[in-house]
Design goal:
alpha/beta; 5-stranded parallel beta sheet; Aldehyde Dehydrogenase, Chain A, domain 2; 567 residues; 18 strands; 21 helices
Length: 567
């Protein structure tokens, strides 16, 4: 007998004729969107915010039914925090950026000794500093470029009006905020009207997006469609479509660009894509967690074990930035204890319905590759999977767990031949860059005493890491959720080796040439971070923060703070 709530019935697919009509309407509206002033655009986004606030509870309720989250459990809170809160924050930041004609004030910008520019994008003011004490976010700019912002708005101000475009956004199935936020980026930053094709996994979120984004839809700048691969192919191949954005798998990306099967492989080898359209993408990662060895107290070990377990368990392991490889120094005195603590935390974390299609097949494939594995947590429902640690994963070329993303609740521990911090970093940076598939996001745990002893070597290590999102002493989910940060692969992947994708989204301050975003938090944050899956009040916190972002106010901060401290 199933113990988890069951998903609502599927939404009927949009007919291909209706898809054609939607694209025709978008193409007709495209010049109006291109000609619209930044302040007019800001007004439309702000009109969406109270609608999203009114829709938030129903949105989260649907998301919980889709994923099988029992009301009142931490999964419900995650759907506010990673869903409605992130979308609301995106709306607010983009509206503020547009009010500033596309060039919102940067808190700080400077050049590194090698000349590379870095722009601090968070905190932006005192409210940020109070609500996120000690958290910073820096966007590193591509070498040779300056921290300019809002290119299309600067060009329009100088009289250069572009033609815009019609973009098809293929929505992600795992996080309800992704489709909405990808659409906002294409509209605001890329100057393109959008047709959002919902993923069948979470298509029931679509009607909530339609109601929340009604001011965009009613003006003809956004359309929503439903259906499977046939609908997606019809849309991406359509003559009116000028660009595509996909959040999904590299396999799905390649099928769109090169074609499926043997024909697609031949096209890829020849470098002759079947579509001549601009495509941006976010395609996952085998995300490493670099654990820099140091003298950690019992409290620090326990806290970071909780955080590491949460990096996997959040959203039932269906996150492209979920912790996949815990990379430790073999000679670290706390190495065995830390691994055991992480396993203990996972064992204490309730298992969830593995809601993503093929999750059980994925789990079987990985555990087949690693017959020696440790299953954790109580599985009392056939739709659930245990939290699983693959045993015997090693640092070598071709190691399966290093090159394949386990799209479920699986992680591995990997040892590097080091004992001290400096020697560890010398090995960990090339390991993360060259042995782990993808460049989307990664995490570093380093205590402040050890970091101080490293001097400039730690900064050099961060500079050398080729990842689009780097989280220091926090989960890279914060990079995603802040929205001030950019979200996407490290630049440079060609279509023939796409890995984590091309381009970025989010980028709340509209920087023109981002290379990577580095978010830093205190080694131990107080109160308990919202992304910890054992947080005691994440439902109330997520609900309150969604409403707070709709209309930030000093008067609301005490209630937010009290709720956060209950975590």
């Amino acid at each position: 007998m199933n113990s988890f709530p069951q998903p609502p019935p599927p939404i009927p697919a949009t007919s291909l004729a209706d898809c054609d009509a939607k694209l025709a309407r978008l193409n007709e509206a495209r010049p109006r969107w291109v000609a619209m002033s930044p302040s007019e655009r800001a007004g439309i986004l702000r009109a969406c915010m109270p609608l999203l606030a009114a829709e938030a509870d129903a949105w989260v309720d649907t998301a919980c039914k889709l994923k099988g989250y029992v009301p009142g459990t931490n999964g419900q809170g995650e759907e506010y925090l990673g869903g409605t809160l992130a979308v609301m924050r995106n709306l607010r930041l983009f509206a503020e950026a547009l009010d500033a004609a596309g060039t919102p004030q940067l808190p700080k910008a400077w050049q590194r000794p090698d000349g590379q520019w870095v722009a601090q994008v968070f905190p932006q003011g005192l409210i940020d500093k109070i609500l996120f004490t000690g958290v910073t976010c820096d966007v590193w700019i591509e070498p040779g470029e300056k921290p300019t912002q809002g290119r299309i708005y600067r060009e329009k101000a100088s009289g250069k009006l572009g033609t815009g475009g019609v973009s098809v956004v293929l929505g992600a199935g795992n996080q309800s905020s992704i489709p909405a936020m990808d659409v906002l980026y294409k509209l605001v930053v890329d100057d393109e009207v959008c047709l959002l094709k919902m993923n069948p996994v979470n298509e029931n979120i679509g009607p909530h997006i339609e109601r929340a984004f009604a001011p965009l839809i009613s003006r003809g700048f956004l359309e929503v469609a439903y259906g499977a691969i046939d609908v997606g192919k019809h849309l991406t191949d359509h003559a009116l479509v000028t660009s595509i954005h996909i959040t999904g798998s590299a396999r799905a990306h390649d099928a769109i660009i090169w074609g499926p099967g043997a024909e697609g492989e031949e096209r890829k080898k020849a470098g002759t894509p079947r579509l001549d359209k601009h495509i941006t993408s976010e395609l996952g990662n085998v995300s490493p967690v670099l654990v820099v060895p140091g003298e950690w107290s019992d409290a620090e070990l326990d806290y970071q074990a909780r955080q590491t377990a949460s990096m996997l368990a959040y959203n039932c392991g269906f996150n492209c930035n979920g912790a996949r490889l815990i990379v430790m120094a073999q000679g670290w005195k706390h190495r065995a204890r830390f691994e055991q603590l992480v396993k203990d935390k996972l064992a204490a974390t309730p298992t969830r319905r593995a809601y993503y299609p093929a999750a059980h097949n994925t789990w079987n494939t990985f555990t087949g590759q690693y017959p020696k594995h440790t299953d954790l947590g109580t599985v009392s429902d056939p739709s659930a999977l245990p939290w699983t640690v693959l045993e015997g994963v090693v640092d070598k070329d071709g190691e399966y767990a290093l090159q394949n993303e386990p799209w479920c609740g699986i992680l591995s521990f990997v040892d590097l031949d080091a004992s001290e911090a400096a020697a560890y970093l010398d090995l960990a940076v090339p390991f993360a860059n060259d042995k782990c598939w993808g460049t989307l996001a990664m995490n570093i745990l380093v205590d402040p005493r050890t970091e101080a002893s490293l001097g400039g070597r730690f900064d050099q290590a961060v500079a050398a890491l080729r990842y689009g999102g780097i989280a220091i002493n926090c989960w890279s989910g914060l990079n995603y959720g802040l929205v001030n940060a950019t979200w996407g692969a490290f630049p440079g992947h060609p279509l023939t080796d796409i890995q984590s994708g091309q381009g970025v989204v989010h980028n709340g301050l509209l920087l023109d040439h981002p290379q990577k975003s580095v978010v830093r938090a205190p080694f131990i944050m107080k109160p308990t971070p919202a992304w910890f899956t054992d947080h005691k009040s994440n439902i109330a916190l997520g609900r309150i923060m969604t409403q707070f972002e709709a209309a930030p106010s000093w008067f609301k901060i005490p209630k937010v703070a009290i709720t956060a401290f209950k975590g």
